[in-house]
Each structure stands twice: as C-alpha cells, then as structure tokens.
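Lecture 7 notes: from sequence to structure.

We start with a single chain of 421 residues. Read the sequence below before looking at the structure.
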Amino acid sequence: MLRVSENTLYIKFILKMMNFNSNNFKNQKINTLNKSMIYILSVLILTACNFKQDSTVGDTSLLEDRYQELLEYPVDSLSFPRSMSIKNGLIRKESSRDWTSGFFPGNLWLIYELTGNKEYMKRAIEWTAFMENEKYNTKTHDTGFMINCSFGTGYRATGNEEYKEVILETAKSLSKRFDENVGCIRSWDFGKDLWEFPVIIDNMINLELLFEATKVSGDSTYYQIAVQHANSTLKNHFREDNSTYHVVDYNSTNGLVNKKMTHQGYNDDSSWARGQAWAIYGYTMAYRYTNDSAYLKQAEATTKYYLNHKNLPKDGIPYWDFEDPNIPNSPRDVSASAVVASALFELYSYTKKKEYLNYSKKVLEVLKSNKYMLKADVKGPFILSSSTGHFPANDEIDEPIVYADYYFLEALLREKLTSVD
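Now the structure, written as tokens:
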C-alpha cells in the first residue's frame, strides 16, 4: 500500500498536470473537461491506494511494522520466542535455558541501536533481566550465545556495569567446560552413545564472550582458553576445500580425533550451510580480538568456498545444505545468509575486498524484500521467514527463527557503521 505521504505527492502531481493549484482547487470553474479529468484523478488515486510494491524492493515501513511486533510481544520469563509456524500462527516459546533465549533480548537491543527509540531499550532491559540466572549455567556451551547476545549487546549499548559483571560470571561458568587434554570447550553433554567429547563448529561463536571477558576485566585466562579452542578447531574442523565439518569427536584422554561427522547436515561429508556461516563469522570475530593472521586466512578461505559454491543461489540465500540432492527443491536457510552477511561486513573492514561488501549489501536488500520479510499482518515477534533449524529432525523447517533476525539486525547495524566509515 502507498503511504499517506506518497498518496499526497501523487495527487499533487496529477493536479499539476491538470494545471490546478491545490490551494484554490475548490474555486476553479469545473467545465466538462475538468469533470473528466477529476474522474480520471479519482480512478488514479484509488489505484494508487491499492498499489503493491514490487516484491524485489525493500519496504522500510514493513520493517518498522515488524519491529513493532517485537515491541508488543508480551513480556514473560517462560516465553522467549524461538520460532513460529506461519501456517497456524503458533509461536515456539522457551525458557531462558534454551540455547536461543538470548537472541530475542538481543534483537530489541539492536533495534534500539538502529532506531534510537528508547521504548526498545526499555523492553530489552526487561527481557535481559530474565537471562541473568544463566550466568551460573555450566551444562551448556551456548551460554556464549545466551549471555553475549543479551547482556553483551546491552553492555555495548549502555555501558551498564552490572551487565559487565554478568558477562564475567558467565565466562567463569563457560570456562569450566574447557578440557586441557583436548584443547577445546565441550559442546554437548547428550549423545554419549554417539561421541565421547563432541565439539561443533557453532562453538566458535561462543568464544566471543570469553574474548570480551578478558577485554573488560584484563584477566587473560578467558582469552587463552578461547585461543586454544580456536586453534584446535582450525587444525581439525576444516577440509581441504576449506568447508567445515559440523562435529569433531575427540578422545578426552589424549586429545586425538575419534571421528568427524554431522548432526544437522545432510551427511557427514556434506556442507551444512549454517555451519559454514558459523566458521566464517567465528574466525572473523577471533581475528578482531587476536590479530592472528591464521584466523583471517581461514575466514577468507571458507568465505571463498561459500561464495563460489555452484549451489549458492543468485540471490545469496543458501539452501540448508550445499550438498542436498534435492536442490533446487530444498528449503533455504535465511539464518545462514544473515550470519554470513553480518560477518562479511566485518571481514570487509579488515581486507577492503569489495566482493564481501557486495554480498552483504545484496543479501540485506533481498532479505528486506517481500519474498523473505514477514508481512505486516503476521502477528508474531519475528522479522524474517524461511530459515531452517534442524532439517534431519524435521524441526523448524522454512520458518521464522529468532537467530536469523538477530544476525540480520546486526548486519543492518554494521552496514550503517560501514557507510559512516
């Protein structure tokens, strides 16, 4: 629909073409010709009011409508929104213990940074408070996601010293999952019949909380753990073509690799799209804190693999797995494209390679289009459609998922900062 301001401009344009002055329109002598022209004007106005924008063009007002849906979502400590079924409108709600819980507070913080609207900050504060108990959680590696995306993003936005203390306490908890023999943080405690000491590529993102803890405290313990984990992953997770395995299982006694496999990809040797995204983002982020050229090299190498893959669609939104034999009749994963777009804005800042910037900008425009952005009448605290959570488990397929929104919003913010630079 055309907005009021657009309708007004359109009417004034038609009046000008009729040689009318909009200020004394009522005083004009209406002859037969003018009556005909007014009739035409009326038809054109009605047509304009029902005009729909091209689906390839981003709609700023639609994005603002989606922001409002997040703001209006009822505050409830047991209802962190994770995903949503468009077919029946059901929202999957989780407690703070779910690995995705920190993304929704983070989304509100990011919208506050993007818009300056303090209503989003107020709501972000409310939701972030519900996350605090997770600072003592030692049962998951995902406290990096959970706390860094909520308290970490909030700390960046406000400088709240209480948020810093939560980050530090969480870093202590996460560090307890580190094993010196393996040189990694253990990812999962489940599936003991499948693996001994599993480490997933996703875990690279959790290192940001440890790096940040050292940055704000001066305690190098967290930095050292993060570097050891990044180095072990660099050594064991990547194939010759610089794609990444999803899971590497280690021998907890001697640190040797037991096997390399997948849990969410098509098969053990395939390239799960979001796994490639985590690798690109993770090593770009690790370079930010360490200036280790090996990390930058790996980030660029996996980016090259990703951008040049024959099965990456022209719009930049990958299928859930690059080797799914059902391509092109396979679901896309918007979340993977959002993670990569955000990462490549940062990678561009280090390399000044335009292909990174071009990909990120293209993806943002595509995601802002009607093809991937939820329509205004969809009632749910999400922005984007068409993410794939866990395809082998038939879980969250082609749905809005909260972490896709987080990295999309972060990419928008990074684009804004890049244009300023």
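Residues 4-49 form one domain. Keep this in mind for problem set 3.
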